[in-house]
Amino acid sequence: MSEDDLYMHYADIFSKSCGGADEDEEEEEGEEEGPSIHEQEMEKQKLLFQQSRLANRGVAEMTLLYISACKGVQSPMTMNTLRLGISILKGGNVEIQKVMSRIRTFQKIMFVSFFNFFHLQNI
């Protein structure tokens, strides 16, 4: 597949909306006191809301379909898509896992490429 700059920008924005920002930035903030339990719960609820909103708009399906279509070829678009997939699954979001499982059940043949990608990349 040819690179699509618009797709890459959207995948990056969607990923960041689910807390997919670089972890290095978080580590550089220093040894400050951690967030309270209330703040952690609020962050978790925000994350779940963003992930669910993206899932309702078809991002989970788009992610799996694109990874399947890449047929194991590593490219910047594939890596952006993987980051997006990781960000919508961050925190073990069961709702997203169920969506992805239903898609896989309906389209098993297409997703052989998805699993081959990970096998070829030794992930």
TrEMBL record:
Keywords for the protein's UniProt record, in alphabetical order: Receptor
Positions in coiled-coil regions: none
Domain of life of the source: Eukaryota
Residue segments, region Disordered: 16-41
Compositional bias of kind Acidic residues: 21-34
Gene Ontology CC: calcium channel complex; sarcolemma; sarcoplasmic reticulum membrane; smooth endoplasmic reticulum; Z disc
GO biological processes: release of sequestered calcium ion into cytosol by sarcoplasmic reticulum; striated muscle contraction
Protein name: Ryanodine receptor 1
Lineage: Eukaryota, Metazoa, Ecdysozoa, Arthropoda, Chelicerata
Gene: RYR1
